[in-house]
Amino acid sequence: MNMDFYQSAKMNIIATDSKTGSEFDDPKLYLNRELSWLEFNRRVLEEGKDPSVPLLERLKFLAIFESNLDEFFMVRVGGLQQKFQAGVAMGSGADKTPVKIQLEKICANVSQMTTEAYDCLHNAIYPALEKEGIIFIKQADFNETDKAHIAEIFNREIFPVLTPLAIDPVHPFPHLLNKSLNLVVQLQRPRGGETLMAVVQVPAVLQRYVPLPIEGRPSCKHVFTTLETIIRTHLPDLFPGMIIDHATAFRVTRNSDFEIEDDDVEDLLKTIEEEIRKRRRGMAVRLQIESSATIDVENFLVKALGLDGMDVYRTKGFLDLTGLFQVHGLPGFPHLHDSQFVSQLSPDFVKFSNPWSAIRAKDILAHHPYETFGHTMDFIEAAANDDKVLAIKLTLYRTSSDSPIVRSLQRAADNGKAVTAVIEIKARLDEERNILWARELEKSGVHVVFGFVGLKTHCKAALVVRREDDGLRRYVHLSTGNYNPQTARMYTDLGYFTCNNDFCEDVSALFNYLTGYCELPKWKKLIVAPSRLQDFMLEKIALEASIAQQGKPARIIAKINGLLEPAIVKGLYRASNAGVKIDIICRGICNLRPGLPGVSENIRVISIVDRFLEHSRIYYFENSESPQVYIGSADWMDRNLSRRVEVVFPIEPLDLKSRIISEILNISLNDNTKARELQSDGSYKKIAPKGNTSRIRSQEKYLELATSNAQKISVELQSEITNEQKNEKPPVVIKSRRIRKNN
Q: pLDDT tens digits, residue range 129-180?
């Protein structure tokens, strides 16, 4: 581990903390982190409730809402419960909300939102789906054909997988897997009337929604029932000779967060693997149970799982909305989905037969998913196959289960190139996948490095070294998002390609920090966390305040995923007081309170939740009408600025800078369809067009721009080919590149 880098970072944060002052220390000036996150998930839920969203897409948003809650309980609530049980009274955030009050408000908000989600599903979405011929039925609705079909598939596919678990003095309550769906069964022996308890786990390896025959239902195209309904119907087959009194579905969420003490680590990989095993047996933090459950059953489960009454969430209807992802993917209903689109080719790439020529011609900015991530995969694939390429270095934080980028790295190593992969095996909830990739890459001869013990390597960087006619040349790709082709179709991100020598030297130095020992350099272009980024941002904010005080144009725009670092919030409050107009496009957590008199009246915060997950990070500083634009991997969160290796970098070419300002920031700020504005009390208000103002949906605009640009370049290329043909010369050959259809 590079201790100089880590210690320097710690000293920098201490120094920065000492400069923040105390004029904005009042906890009332800050929103609570956990409640702010729940407000983000409320915005996701609102998309599921929105009648203007296509019907099957509404199911997707309900499933995302549930999936988000799972992670929230696994990562955040578990930590709060541990603090409460340890007697910690005061919260650790800038708002200082007591731990008990946080837990109580979480319980109230989650209960309310869950009720809204199920009301929407049962009272709005289900009836609308039924009109489209998609119905969901319960046991009471089974006809004779259903019963025969269910009996057949139960005996053939379900029964062999099930294991009924008795609970008695000889058989203690079983350890149930995190997020597993189960049935707790009350039953009696035929003689004696003794009440017994048993648990049956609903197999996660089988489809949650089971299709049933549509015969006898002329208007139906699909009929579904749930797997647990079928198991419940056939409980007598699992407990032959017993009297079944009652069966209740329930679901357990476990604490899955862990921390690693730096001083105790000798082998990081082994330590992570041990923590993953512990996670599977983490303490229970939430019990979801059917609303029809008896008090006796609830008390039994609460005691068995070591929970409190506040940890119980009763649900009207089937448990676990994440199962709706299966139904969301139903084919044959294009009108119930978002319209299909094709990720467009970047005009700056298609004119050239290889990425090296394109990047030498000019720096290139790609806006994903509107422009294809295929260019990034082409970049790595071309490097793997090119005989002139000598070395490839790349960071991996999260990637897909069958990553073409990882396969390209393996192929590059097989071809004799020097390949280095810096893999972050502490990427939360992706640790196991990253460990598997690390081992696969090592088998192929890739140099695998795990970065630092105390810092996550969150930056997104790739470096290619190529021998050319005039000597060695380096090519760089930097990004706001991961090297993950799956999420690249769902997340909005920016990728930057350059062979600018200052960038190349900085990225080379960055990889040397991550893999070896060296002193901190004087960075030419990159701003790197945790050693420098927080101070840099505070200086830029302070400079805008100084410019405003001089009566010159001053403005700050930040497009981020989260704002939580108190030092940054205080800097923004000072800038607001100095007269700086501040616009923040923050998708998720935000602990800043906008609109407070004398504190933040010049600050506006909006959040956009739409078809794609807003993920790019952009920082704009007006700088007295000489704008500066930076993009990168870091949010204004404490973890990004002090506990991760992050990279933010300037966009200097005027055309690219202008594109980010006009095509991304301005359109996002004017969104009046999917944007919501943060109020000073922490709630969000949906923005709507005023008067005769046109409707603006930012993601829709980006799709239109990408399509328009692609059409223009297609016309230009066709014109070139036509001219070549007129001159009787061989036609221009355009290399085929990946174009991916998205839903």
A: 999 999 999 999 999 999 999 999 999 999 999 999 999 888 899 989 899 9
Residue 357 sits in a domain whose CATH number is 3.30.870.10
Shared-domain flag, residues 165 and 246: yes
For residue 602, give the nearest of 538, 565, 557 by alpha carbon: 557
Prior bond to 530 cis, omega within 30?
yes
Distance CA 310, CA 107 (A): 7
In a shared domain, residues 261 and 285: yes
Q: Find the catalytic residue in 367, 458, 477, 615.
A: 458
Indicate whether 122 pLDDT > 70: yes
Helix, strand, coil abundance in the chain, percent, nearest 5: 45, 20, 35
Assigned token pair, 66: 């549930």
Query: Quick check: is 458 catalytic?
Result: yes
Q: Which residues form the domain of 727? A: 344-525+704-742
Which one, of 670, 617, 356, 317, lies nearest residue 491 by Cα?
A: 617
Asked whether 230 and 211 are in contact (CB, 8 A), the reply is: no
Q: Indicate whether 426 and 498 sit together in one domain.
A: yes
**122 in a structural domain:** yes
Looking at this protein, which amino acid is placed at residue 277?
Answer: R
Q: Give the C-alpha separation, 661 to 618, whole Å.
A: 10
In a domain, 654, yes or no: yes
Q: How far is Cα 201 from Cα 247, in angstroms, rounded to an integer?
A: 12
